[in-house]
Predict the 3D structure of the following.
Amino acid sequence: DTGVSQDPRHKITKRGQNVTFRCDPISEHNRLYWYRQTLGQGPEFLTYFQNEAQLEKSRLLSDRFSAERPKGSFSTLEIQRTEQGDSAMYLCASSLAFLGVGNEQFFGPGTRLTVL
Amino acid sequence: QKEVEQNSGPLSVPEGAIASLNCTYSDRVSQSFFWYRQYSGKSPELIMSIYSNGDKEDGRFTAQLNKASQYVSLLIRDSQPSDSATYLCAVNRGSQGGSEKLVFGKGMKLTVNP
């Protein structure tokens, strides 16, 4: 399978705990994105990386959220001190950057987080 | 005004009919436009991308873009029960617009009845 992969697929945690999610992009893709989706809504952008550099962050990304892509390959998204409002599907996508328009983003299966 | 708006739906069509999905966007700097299909409990799957005014056809799918009217649509011909899903419209400013994020609408749920 050469698509985007995410781990874990499901995570149940108690309020106040820290959680970390991993995303492995399509191998030749240099851009990696994180989105969050709640029921009945479209995905909302959180952040994106081009290679190792984090180039854009949403105002939605509070201080409790941090993302890394240390070697320009896989990425991790950590949520500290989880709150019930963090319950959502966390989606990772990747794309191949090139000049001009384009930038088709392909999504992984997502990690569903439930905060009790 | 929301950045990307889709008709609230849901939309129900009989098998074999044409399903028409519409989307408007507010950011005139938007350069790239996408339609994603999302089955219940699954992640979004890219089905169409369009960058220039006019029509783009891919099998049973046709995307239409009118930048002057800030309008994107998706037509699904010969609709099949397997097309039943939520369809998400997404727009992107691109590097020229200074942002690579996708901005999504809320989605339109389509049901194709056998």
In short: The first helix of chain B runs from residue 94 to 97. DSSP finds one helix and eleven strands in chain B.
